[in-house]
Amino acid sequence: MFNTDASNLYKNCEKEKFVDYLTKDIKLESIPGEKYQYSNLGMALLAYIVFKIESRDYESLLQEDIFKPLKMEHSTTQRDLVKYFLVQGYNWKGKLTVNWDMAEIKGAGAILSSVSDLAKYLMWNFKALNNQLTLMKQSTKTINENLEIAIRWRILKNKTPKPFLRHNGGTGGYKSSMAINLDNKTAIIILTNIGATNNPKKELIDNLCFDLMKFLVK
User: Fold this and answer.
1) Record's family (predicted)?
2) pTM value?
3) Residue 99 has what DSSP assignment?
4) Which one of 8, 44, 133, 179 is most buried, by most CB atoms within 10 A?
5) pLDDT digits over 184-205, tens only?
6) Which 8-state DSSP code applies to residue 86?
7) Structural domain contains residue 110
8) Does residue 2 lie in a domain region?
9) Residue 16 belongs to what H/E stretch?
């Protein structure tokens, strides 16, 4: 399904190929609910289902339901709309990289955003995760004594006195890390233009995020 340039992994994964893979080629390695495996494909499938139910494309759904109501003016899946604001990405050796084209995998990482916009999103989450999005903070799988999996969020237990929610991500030339503590309404957002792919030091960004969260809860 990802038979394309290694520097732009998902470029050729268009709708027909995506659907064909899901209906004919994919094989589960375990009984659903038995094991946990992080899956970009799973998030892409979830987004695809939402598109079908809503009869809207991804960009329209995001703009109408999230970005415009929260006044996230520099968030989009369309690179041309923010090309004058977009920071150049680099790999971990300092070489220029291309921006990934997510094609039908867009639900797993096509959004372009900024720290200021993500701050607005997290401010909304302080209330939403205790109201309409309560299910998103509830554990669905225990990985070990320090880590549980909620819906998209990870629940980290060993860094601060009380658990906090966190997630990270990376595409070509970029690495991000985010954490949110609902108890004291603090959050960390780190966006970098150094890629995570094959980067032996990629954990430094997450460790910085954790250290900052520890500082905020002292």
Assistant:
1) Belongs to the beta-lactamase family.
2) 0.91
3) P
4) 179
5) 899 999 999 999 888 899 899 9
6) P
7) yes
8) no
9) helix 15-20
